[in-house]
Amino acid sequence: MNDDIRLQELFDDFRPTLTDIEQFSSQLERRLAMIDEIREAQAAQLRRYRMAVVAAFVVGIVFGSVLLAVILATPSEVPLFSFGINFYPLLFIEQNSRLISAFLTSLMITISIVAILNTSEQAHRMEFS
Description:
The protein is an all-alpha fold.
């Protein structure tokens, strides 16, 4: 009950003051200007983000293609790496090192492309939300 009485007193004591129209208008214009600045900053950030995604995409494709070309250009009888052990699973990996490296490089390129496209789609959704 004391809480109800205190709340009632608080509301009874509240006497809002009316501001003049010029002060209200200036505050409203300032807030609208801040909203415009925030929108412009977000648009600039989204443009920078898209450029970074495009740059990462191009660099990844070029680097992956060069690496794949180097792997496939090495002589087929020379393995890319050697373990120096005659344990069958390691010997199999050593004998097929070019093919395994090419497969792993292609897999990394594919995963990178999918990740970058997913990121680009998320950026596109951020723009329209």
